[in-house]
Amino acid sequence: DTVVNEERGSLDTAQIQLGMKYDVKDKRFALYVVQLSNTASFAVPPNEKVYVRIAVLPCSETTSCLFRTKAEFPQEYIRFNEVFWVAISHVALCQKTMRADVCCMTKSLQEQCLAGAQISLAEVSCSGERYTSWYNLLNYKYMKELNRM
Amino acid sequence: DTVVNEERGSLDTAQIQLGMKYDVKDKRFALYVVQLSNTASFAVPPNEKVYVRIAVLPCSETTSCLFRTKAEFPQEYIRFNEVFWVAISHVALCQKTMRADVCCMTKSLQEQCLAGAQISLAEVSCSGERYTSWYNLLNYKYMKELNRM
User: Fold this and answer.
1) Sign of the dihedral defined by the CA atoms of residues B53, A17, A99, B18, in that order
2) Is A134 close to B123, i.e. CB distance below 8 A?
3) Which of A71, B32, B83, B97 has the largest count of CB atoms under 10 Å?
């Protein structure tokens, strides 16, 4: 078994800390990308920065659905503290699924995503309070292996 | 906006209802695949049955990580009511991510997954109580589109 880390549960798994808040009055959803932990567990190419790509899916034609944080060099904790807003009704939001992927740019300037979390927004609260949680990041290599099983 | 359905939030999005329970005494995790709703929203080939593939990732070498329900023809609600057990410590479980994918068999007997939910187990309770929730299913076509944006 693994040594438990007080701050976020375990030392082995890369995680992302996200906050969410739905503002009923202004009909908008706030997504806070707080930080990443343990990005060493997926192989970032040397001297490359990583960033978080957020997608609120399926995309609608009337509002933004894709966001990217600034890029940072890997370290034990990468703090972003960025917030993204989506103008959307609560009913429509509850039908969406959010992907939060950790990506980098390849030398040929292609976006390469290394690991991600996927969060169903079916039960997003409309209380106006901000909820913050840590989510495990699933390495894309396990997804690929799974589809070969 | 969409008409709200009392039972599960909305009429448009395919969803899966899953239950989870961690049994501290026997160190095992129970996953209940209760039912699917609105599978008409992803294109199941005619006359094909669908089933749910559960994966608890990353796989470890000492316990099962991949499970499949029986297959059923698509209808508004597909009730499975199946339970799968994983022998695992709570600390190890909290580092896992679960995929619940809706799949079918192609004519060439390849498994084809149409849509899925991904659930971080970082904050799984060890209270021994069963928690049941509906999760939106993200169609694989949106994942593919995303990686072309």
Assistant:
1) positive
2) yes
3) B97
| B61 part of contact set with chain A, CB < 8 Å | no
Give B122→chain A minimum CA distance, Å: 6
From CA B8, how far away is CA A122, in angstroms rounded?
A: 9
B20 in contact with chain A, both atoms CB, cutoff 8 A: no
Nearest to B23 by CA among B76, B117, B93, B77: B93
Mean pLDDT of A30-57: 92
Question: Taking the C-alpha atoms of B4, B7, B8 and B14 in order, what is their torsion angle to the nearest 10 degrees?
Answer: -100
For residue A61, list chain B residues with Cβ-Cβ distance below 8 A. Answer: none
Give A100-137 pLDDT, tens digit per residue.
999 998 888 899 999 999 999 999 998 889 999 999 99
Residue B61 burial by CB count (10 A; 0-12/13-18/19+): exposed, middle or buried?
exposed
Tokens 């913050």 correspond to A132
* Nearest residue to B113 via CA among B128, B103, B123: B103
Return the amino acid letter for B42. Answer: F
